[in-house]
Amino acid sequence: MLHDVDPPHTHWQLKSPIHAHYINTLLKYYPQASIIMPHRCLNEVIPSACSLFLSLLSHYFNEDDIPNLKIMLGQMIPKFIDITIDRIFEFNSRESSRKNVFNIQYKDLITDPIGTVHRIYDHFHFLQWSDEFEKAMHLWLMENPQGKQGRHSYSLNEFHLETQMNKQLYKDYEKLFLST
């Protein structure tokens, strides 16, 4: 495992939606892991994932094939997201009282990043908050405003996803994790 190859000095920070597929395995080997699960509106997540895979795969296709690739991604990515949501629901129903899992809304991280990080630190008591840390976050946010590196644009329509976004599964997910 990772700790045998590259042991951390303090801790690891791993970020990938794919971890939701293997959260039980992750916690089997790292039962004390602190897991932050950000949740986002699926009508943003799904076209974003399609766009990511398009950028990864488009180099292997001719320009004429890109429209068909977009259609294919618009069919495949929702199936992947469905599995991800099922795994999150399964885990949440079985382990909802775990203190080492903290759910946040992605929009909170964007609109109030310091407040959201403060809530994370409050939840995981072993993390130490300091004025110096907060000042460093303010500085980083000032020096790195959203959009500094450009904006990534995508849409449901681009990947023919409009009809797929009305699934009950998506409504249940958003009700559980995104309703305030």
Automatic annotation (TrEMBL):
- Superkingdom to which the source organism belongs: Eukaryota
Q: Which residues cross the membrane?
A: none
Which Pfam families does this UniProt record tie to the protein? Sulfotransfer_3 (PF13469)
- Report the PANTHER family cross-referenced here: OMEGA-HYDROXY-BETA-DIHYDROMENAQUINONE-9 SULFOTRANSFERASE STF3 (PTHR36451:SF1), PAPS-DEPENDENT SULFOTRANSFERASE STF3 (PTHR36451)
Name of the featured protein = Sulfotransferase
